[in-house]
Structure formats: structure tokens, C-alpha cells
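Colleagues,

Please find the record for the two-part complex below.
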Amino acid sequence: MTIFVFTLILFIASAFAGLIGSLTGLGGGVVLIPLLTLVFKINIHYAIGTSLISVIATSSGAAAAYVKEGITNIRLGMFLELATTSGAIIGAMTATFVSTSFIAVTFGVILLVSAITSFMSIDEKIDSGAKGKFASFLKLNNSFPTGDGMRDYTVKNVAGGFLMMNIAGIVSGLLGIGSGALKVIAMDRVMRIPFKVSTTTSNFMIGVTAAASAGVYLKRGYIDPGLSMPVVLGVLLGALIGSRILFRAETRILKVLFAIVICILAAEMIYNGIKGTL
Amino acid sequence: MEKKMIDDKRIEIIMGNLLRFGVFLSALVVCTGSFIYLFQHGSATPQYRTFEGEPKRLTELHSILTSALNGRGRSIIQFGLLLLISTPIVRIIFSIIGFIMERDLLYALITLVVLATIMVGLF
């Protein structure tokens, strides 16, 4: 296979990864790393660097569309970025000391945890009860548009969510993914934020989190231009299409799609990690 | 309260457009570099099975800029990727200004700390 053909195939595959990443709020990286390592047999170090770049592309590219829809909670995102960026730096620094097998297995476990959590309950709860003192002080409570007008929601368990976000940041820096799944869990499960708000706010934060560790990866030589080029352009195209679908798609369908994809990928990554074939 | 909502919305829209422009610009630079790269190396065989790390001209901020200006395909792509990395950073800087204009000093401070953290990773 020549570089030209390789680039073309990678571009098309990345467009699909970008579409899935955008639809589920995963940020593309979660689908990309298994794709690059399992299908294209690319070394996991290059896969991590490439993924990190495309994670930024997905986040920045789709955020423009999300912001216009008015469902991103900017203040909440900004506050939680304190936790994710510091975590990302810690994770990126740790990545040097661990083996590729460890990375692959950790990757699989993270995916599996996300999938299981996502299956635990599918009903959409919008919490508009009593406002917490901390959430009120930080101006985190907000509203979002639904089929029948604006709905108010309150943010719960700010400290727990912050801690979870710090872990999400560490995972992001360590694995080179946006860890959008963990961010969505932190907001959806812990902080009781409506699913659509948590996916878009998560997407909003992913780019900033990835930028925090991207510099570290660039300096280490993990980011290859020949590889990143088709992936970034492909992911951007996919994310662009995805951001146009999101607002119309059903929450339940999103969650099921999200869970099935990551379950399959998780099993593959853990198997290959243990076997040492990555 | 209503005025504040309008300000918030305006900042969000400007921020969204800023991000979109940054992504568009970096995609354009990456495309430019990819033409040169594919024209020169398109018929070679890709080598990504083993990790060797990138040469200095593709890992140091200053070297990327110098070799990109010399018209080297891979360096131009790498410069485009650098632009992409900087889009969220520019957004953060813009947010700080926005929060100061809104007189929300708490969030100006929070965003400033986020910016400082990103800079620790870059330098």
C-alpha cells in the first residue's frame, strides 16, 4: 500500500470515527485509537498523538454549532476545566512511565465502565429542585431548550463532579483521548445535568483538556504530521455532519449507540493489550 | 438580569465563530501541506508499525515554524496542527476578556488559572 492510498482510506475511516464521536459526545478519540491500532496496525504511541490532535479538532469544530443551539453551559465547563486541565498534565507526564499493554488495558476498562454506566438507566431526569449553595455561588444552574420551551435545571454534587472531572483529565492525558465518556458520566450521573447539556458541555471542555496535554505529546514526538493529516481532516468532516444531526436525535438512541460501540471496542483493546499485540 | 443573558449569549456566539474560524484556518494549512507531502512522498510505503519518534524539526515550536516557512510539506502540516492546538487556548484568552467585560471576576480568575495550567504543558 502506498502513502497516497493509505492516506485516503484513513481519511474515510476517520470521517466515520468523527461522526460517531460527535454523535455520542465521546470526541472521536475513543473510536480512533482502536481503529488506528487494531485495524491499521499503527503503533499505539502514534495513535495516541494523532488521537489527541483530532480530539481538539472535533471539540473546536463542533463547539461552534453547539454554542449556537444554546445548550452548552459555559460557566460549568470553565469551572470543571480547572479539574480536567490539571489532570491532563498529570496524565501526560505519567504516560512516559507505563507500558503499551497497560495503556491498552486501561483504555478498554475505561470504555467498559462508560458502557455499563450508560446502560444503568435510560430515563431522562431533569432536576429542577432545591439549589445547592456551592452551585449557586458558582452560577452553575442554568436552562436549556426542549421541544416545549426552556427548561431550568440545577447542578448537584459539585465536589463529586469536580473530582470525577480530575480523573477524566488524568485519563485524557494518559491515553490521549478526550475522555468525553467520563466527563459525560460526571455531569450526567454525578451532577445530574440533562444528557444533552452534559454531552455538549463535555464536547466544549474536551478541546481545552486535550490542548493541555498536546504540547507534552508534541515535544515527545508522538504527533506525526503524515498520520495526523488525514485523520484530522476526516474527523472534522465527520464531526461537522454529526453536529447537524445531534439536536434532532433522540437521547435514548444516542445512549444505546454509544454503549454498543464502546463495548465492542473495549473487549478488543483489553484482549490485545493482555496478548501484547499492540 | 436580561442584559446579562444577552451578554452571555453574545460572548458564546463570538466564541463559537472564533473556534470555527481557527479550525477552518488550520484545516486549510494542513491541506496545503498535505498536497506538498503527498506529491513528494505519495508513492512511498507508510511506516507506522514501530515507534521512532519525530525529528526535531517536527517537535519544537520554533523549528516547526522555520521549516514550514521553507515549504516543507510535513512541517506545514505540523504548523497547521499547532494552529489547531492553539484554538482552545485562544478561546480561553477570549473568555477571560469576556468575563472581565461582564465584571464576573470570579470566572475571570477561574479561566486565568485554566490558561496557566495549559501553558505549563506547552512550555
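Chain B has one domain: 2-122.

Comments are welcome before we finalize the supplementary table.
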